[in-house]
Amino acid sequence: MEETLKSKILIVDDEPQIIQYMKALLSDFGYETGALSRAEYLFQRLEVESFDLILMDLHMPGIDGLTLVKQLKGDQSSYREIPVIMLTGETQEQVLADCFESGVVDFINKPIHELTLRARIRSALDTQAHIQTVRKQNAKMKNDLRLAEIAQRSALPSLPDQSFLQITVSYLPFGNVSGDTYDIAKNQDGAINFFLGDATGHDIAAAFITMMVQMGLVSLPADASTNYIMSQLNLLLASRIPQDKFVTGVYLRITPQGTMSICNAGHPVSFMISANKEVGQLVKRGQPLGMLAEEKVPYVEKKFQLQPGNKILLYTDGILEWKNEAGEEFGEDRLCEFLEANRDLAIDQMTERLLDHVRQFAGEIPCRDDLTLLGIQYKE
After folding, report:
1. What's the chain's average pLDDT?
2. Which residue from 32, 147, 190, 196 puts its CA 20 to 30 A from 58's CA?
3. What are residue 129's phi and psi, to 5 degrees?
4. Domain count of the chain?
5. pLDDT over threshold 60, residue 1
6. Is the predicted pLDDT of residue 3 greater than 60, yes or no?
7. pLDDT of residue 2 exceeding 60
8. Quick one: average pLDDT of 262-286?
9. Is the pLDDT reported for residue 98 higher than 80?
10. Is 233 exposed, middle or buried (0-12, 13-18, 19+ CB in 10 A)?
11. Burial of residue 139 (number of CB atoms within 10 Å: 0-12, 13-18, 19+)
12. Strands 259-265 and 271-273
């Protein structure tokens, strides 16, 4: 902070000669000053006049400087952000330690020397200016995160109007924004398209990538094959996102007649519970989206004919990687065991119970990743 900015400093000392000496020095340094000889009136003074720094004597009649600083820096104080430099002839380490623990930023020994006073005031004001800058930056970042969260959530779909599927979604971001995204859209022929994706990370960068995925899905023909959709999304992302970023995803289409098409791009395998209650995996993983423009592993579409009662579970890896207090991940084996044990449940009850089950497994350990479940049950 430049001294020419006219920072305003309050001198709190019961000795008039000290006040006059300090005011003269601070004026020469280019600061505005105020003075207070009776410390008990400090808060009344601060109510009517603002200061950037307080120079306070440690030993004063009525109330000592240490007690006053504790009041000034209290949680309920409106003036706790004003830095305080203590003026003292005290040399006992415990007293000085108490000053720092109470919130004093520095101290100056009496008799006061001009160079020391100038340097320590400058240091305290510079530090305070840096703190204020960081706070403003943090406030801006929080606002940016809030706006990103609003934008990301606004891109997520509402459930389409249809009668042949029961659909349930649980969307649990790790923070304000998420690396998970999903899309549910109805074709002109009445089929329902589903996409579930997971971008690397769970920060703003990941959220922006999910927005690119959403824009890509909107731009592609809704009735194209699932592997064509994945291939085009891959080309789009590979040309636009950093090389160390990618998206895993699964794209699924179900017609009113029960024909299901599915394509996987590096995503955890999806599960289907058949009408006779058998639990099976749908498709193995393919190449993640955006990792390479060239399809080293071609995107493959698989088709199935659903029967009434068939249930499909899509999920992101947040559920598999949720750890318990022993450091064990929930994992795919435990997920299979849960589905086997709860295969009679309707899909909405199943996903709700699954989340409860994983939370019980984790105990006091919170999920460290974004988590999304997308459950589908074919009715007829």
Report:
1. 91
2. 32
3. -65, -40
4. 2
5. no
6. no
7. no
8. 87
9. yes
10. buried
11. exposed
12. unpaired
pTM (two decimals): 0.75
Is 284 inside any structural domain? yes
* CA atoms 69, 70, 71, 72: torsion sign: positive
Same domain, 130 and 203: no
Domain match, 62 and 183 both? no
Q: CA-to-CA distance for 212 and 203, rounded, in angstroms?
A: 15
pLDDT at 31: 94
Min mean pLDDT across 86-95, 147-156, 180-189 is at: 86-95
Q: In b/e form, how buried is each residue of 2-40, taking b as 16+ CB within 10 angstroms?
A: eeeeebebbbbbeeeebbebbbebbeebebebbbbeebe
User: Does one domain contain both 11 and 120?
Assistant: yes
Structure tokens at 281: 């995996």
Residues 176 and 53 placed together within one structural domain of the fold: no
Q: Are residues 164 and 123 in the same domain?
A: no
Over residues 308-331, mean pLDDT: 96
186 and 371 in contact (C-beta within 8 Å)?
Answer: no
Where helices occur in 200-310 by DSSP H, the ranges are: 204-219, 226-238
Contact 145, 115 (CB under 8 A): no
Is pLDDT of 44 > 70? yes
Q: What residues are paired with 171 via a beta bridge? A: 372
- Domain coverage including residue 88: 3-138
Same domain, 128 and 167: no
Question: Phi, psi (5° rounding) for residue 262?
Answer: -145, 145
Cis bond before residue 111 (omega within 30° of 0): yes
3-state secondary structure of 36: strand
- Average pLDDT value for residue range 292-305: 90
Residue 5 confidence (pLDDT): 57
For 336, the 3-state DSSP assignment is: helix
DSSP 41: G
Length of the chain: 380
**Cβ–Cβ < 8 Å for 25, 149:** no
